[in-house]
Design brief:
The protein is of the alpha+beta class. Helix content is 32%, strand content 26%. The structure holds dinuclear copper ion.
Length: 229
């Protein structure tokens, strides 16, 4: 999760987020190079005193400063497209989780397992335990197995919400009447915090998401306990 003064991206916990961070760094590097070059040129313009009364056109330089930016943009566009298609790929998921956005909480269904379903509300500040995270902890966490492909189906019951987990590189809108799909692979056991990221009404800030990723045998135990009850 994000803590104090963490202005960059969170550490990745999935291969997709790792690729997203690589792409971010790559794009930032190109951006810095352009900014430095243009900044240097503009700065130097203040101090030059070259004048040419007969300069009316410069075909070659115009050709260069038209095509060079276009080629540079390709170096961002092509990796971006590659990422887009990787993110869209569904790799034979072993678990499917359905999350439904409501005003203002999430509810979850494990449709593969006798349709286990529950609501997940934020814990109010006055009920928070001393080791809890204010505005981020929920009463019922999403339990998911690590090292497995997981499919997420996102929808909403009233207005548009967005199911967002930064460390996993997941951000899917939940839209009433539609079922959106994405998938991810969690590569370590941990707690992952996220928040709704569509402005969905008065309590938009108060519908966090907590994922608890556990080893597969723990997940199976949790599933079988909940199926019996
Ligand atoms: Cu749900 Cu913002």
């Amino acid at each position: 999760m994000s803590t104090w003064a963490n202005l960059g991206l969170q550490d990745s916990a999935s291969p997709l987020m790792e690729q997203l961070i690589f792409f971010h760094d790559h794009a930032l590097l190109i951006l810095v190079m352009i900014t430095v070059l243009v900044g240097y040129l503009m700065f130097m313009l203040f101090f030059n005193c070259y004048i040419n009364r007969f300069l009316l056109h410069g075909q070659l330089i115009e050709l260069i400063w038209t095509f060079l930016p276009a080629i540079i943009l390709l170096f961002i566009a092509l990796p971006s497209l590659r990422l887009l298609y990787i993110l869209d790929e569904i790799n034979e998921p072993s678990v499917t989780l359905k999350s439904i956005g409501h005003q203002w909480y999430w509810s979850y269904e494990y449709s593969d397992f006798n349709n286990i379903e529950f609501d997940s509300y934020m814990i109010p500040t006055n009920e928070l335990s001393t080791d809890g995270f204010r505005l981020l902890d929920v009463d019922n966490r999403v339990i998911l197995p690590m090292n497995s492909q997981i499919r997420i189906l996102v929808t909403a019951a009233d207005v548009i919400h967005s199911w967002t987990i930064p460390a996993l590189g997941v951000k899917v809108d939940g839209t009433p009447g539609r079922l959106n799909q994405t998938n991810f692979f969690i590569n370590r056991p941990s707690l992952f915090y996220g928040q709704c990221s569509e402005i969905c009404g008065a309590n938009h800030s108060f519908m966090p998401i907590v994922i608890e990723s556990v080893p597969v045998n723990y997940f199976i135990k949790w599933i079988s306990n909940n199926m019996n009850s």
